[in-house]
Specification:
Helix content is 56%, strand content 4%. With 107 residues, it is mainly alpha-helical.
């Protein structure tokens, strides 16, 4: 898998990553995992194919953000109470004008 500054950019790499996600637990048990971010980060590191120093420099946070941009349908996640809370929190932030447009750069 090719990684450029911690961001997946190879179609083959994305395929490998999503193939690895097929090993994820069912939605019904995801909220029972003590630290799901650790599971996600381990999957990202494994899917990167990196070793040694490159793996230590691998930016899992940046990759996590990149993945959210590639997902076209979040509806399955709406079954999870944690995701419902996240959407409610984001809605509240938007209503109060506190949400930044992450996709644009400021000068």
């Amino acid at each position: 898998m090719k990684v450029g500054r911690g961001v997946f950019y190879s179609n083959t790499g994305l395929y490998d990553l999503f193939k690895r996600f097929s090993d994820m637990p069912e939605l019904s048990v995801i909220e029972q995992i003590p630290n799901p971010k650790d599971v996600l980060f381990e999957i990202l590191r494994e899917a990167s194919g990196l070793t040694g120093r490159r793996l230590k420099r691998f930016n899992t946070d940046e990759c996590r953000i990149r993945i959210t941009g590639l997902v076209s349908d979040f509806s399955p996640l709406r079954q999870l109470s944690a995701f419902q809370r996240l959407e409610n929190d984001i809605s509240t932030l938007k209503q109060n004008g506190w949400v930044l447009d992450i996709g644009s750069e400021t000068a």
